[in-house]
Amino acid sequence: MAQQKQYDKEFKLNTVQLILESGKPITQIARELRISSKTLYGWVAQYKDDPKNAFIGSGNLKPDDKELRDMQKRIRDLEEENAILKKAMRIFTNDRK
Question: What span, in angstroms and rounded, lies between the C-alpha atoms of 55 and 32?
Answer without folding.
Answer: 22
